[in-house]
Design goal:
Shape: globular
Radius of gyration: 22 Å
Number of helices: 6
CATH topology: Alpha-Beta Plaits
Strand content: 25-35%
Order of helices and strands: HEHEEHEEEEEHEEEHH
CATH architecture: 2-Layer Sandwich
Structural class: alpha+beta
């Protein structure tokens, strides 16, 4: 009996040590995967529907729901910065600020064009349609970063919000749209009641966008020097969601796929995020 008791104590002790080691390895892996300059930052997520009218705008709203569910399941917080609803269904565009540790590091893998193939609920003939929507991920940059935005380079428009109202968006004439003339970058903000506050937030987001653009230009130059032809540029198709004639979601960069489309559209995208991050780290060592 003493021997059995002793063996059981050793077993419990070993199992605990294994759990501690596994946890430490997981934490170390996370640190390696999220070691970029802005991986720990909050993120600004933008969705834009592609060509295709109601089909594309509905797909854009499905993506907005998918990312909202991902945010909720990871105990992050988000606020709707701006939204432009479509005439029949869905949205033309939306912009949300997601707050939490490592948000940008996780979501940077979602940047690109997302394609949906399904039987259209808007087509009386029940034909198969292909829809596109683009996703842009921008790290929220600290306000003290040195990015000069000259007044003469900015065009500011004030308009009435077109969103759903309620707590999600503001419907007064305080919505602000700022265009950065040298780059063509456009930022809209409508979630605050004050026009001044909307302008301040829009300028902060614009600063983040301009900074990211400069970083991408530098990155592109380095890629050209290295002769790397495998770089995935913004706007390229990264993932396809098939709901007919079969069920599949496939990421074209990592070749990771799953047949559970509904689970993915309900916010379970960790499979694709982790595969992308691990592939990114592996490429850095090659």
């Amino acid at each position: 009996m003493l021997e059995d008791s002793y063996d059981e104590e050793i077993k419990i002790m070993v199992e605990k040590e294994l759990l501690d080691i596994t946890k430490a390895l997981d934490e170390f892996e996370l640190q390696v995967l999220l070691s970029g300059d802005y991986d720990s930052n909050n993120a600004i997520l933008e969705i834009h529907s592609g060509a295709g009218g109601t089909e594309a705008s509905d797909w854009a709203s499905m993506l907005l729901r998918m990312y909202s569910r991902w945010v909720e399941s990871n105990n992050y917080n988000y606020e709707l910065i701006a939204i432009q609803t479509a005439e029949e269904a869905g949205i033309k565009s939306a912009s949300i600020l997601i707050k939490g540790k490592n948000v940008y590091g996780f979501l940077k893998s979602e940047k690109g064009v997302h394609r949906l193939i399904r039987l259209s609920p808007f087509d009386t003939g029940k034909r198969r349609h292909t829809s596109f929507a683009s996703v842009e991920i921008i790290p929220e940059i600290e306000s003290n970063i040195e990015i000069e935005l000259k007044e003469q380079d900015l065009k500011t428009d004030v308009y009435r919000s077109s969103g759903a109202g309620g707590q999600s968006v503001n419907t007064t004439d305080s919505a602000v749209r700022i265009t950065h003339l040298p780059t063509g970058l456009i930022v809209t903000c409508q979630n605050e009641r004050s026009q001044i506050k909307n302008k301040e937030k829009a300028l902060q987001i614009l600063k983040s966008k301009v900074y990211q653009l400069e970083q991408e230009k530098l990155s592109d130059s380095l890629v050209e020097l290295k002769g790397d032809s495998q770089k995935i540029d913004f706007g390229s198709q990264i993932r396809t969601y098939v709901m007919h004639p079969y069920s599949m979601v496939k990421d074209h960069r990592t070749n990771v796929e799953t047949s559970n489309v509904l689970k993915v559209l309900d916010g379970d995208i960790s499979l694709f995020i982790e595969a992308y991050l691990k592939g990114e780290v592996a490429s850095d060592f090659n």
